[in-house]
Design brief:
Helix content: 10-25%
Structural class: alpha+beta
Number of helices: 2
Radius of gyration: 14 Å
Order of helices and strands: EEEEEHEEEEH
CATH topology: Nucleoside Triphosphate Pyrophosphohydrolase
CATH class: Alpha Beta
Largest sheet: 5 strands, antiparallel
Shape: globular
Strand content: 35-45%
Amino acid sequence: MIITKACPVVLRTTQTLEILAFEHPLAGLQLVKGSVEPNETTAAAAIRELQEEAGITGNVIRNLGTWHSEITGQTWAFHQCHVSADLPDSWTHFAEDDGGHCFRFFWHPLGSELTNEWHPIFKGALTTLIEKLGSEAR
């Protein structure tokens, strides 16, 4: 199995377990993820994508496994990341990808419903992550 995408998973606990997510101005609600470059580990790709898409520096603390998207045919690697900064409840970050976009970041409670605002690919990814996190996500 060739892993083509890396997804850094940043979690926080307030009243419930929440995951870092963002609103793409053209493609709905999403998680940070991106392509694994040649000769790059999926963990290194996750850290790079976290910096590029969210402007956050972090480090991988555990591997959360993989997921195969039936929609795209791509296989993703999930890596839980720790960030030393205390992140706000929401913020925007300008990412250079695809000509540049301003992403609005927020925390999504893992126990809440995945509305139609979520891009279909990311609904599948989140459902898998919730299953992998098990009792932590409840």
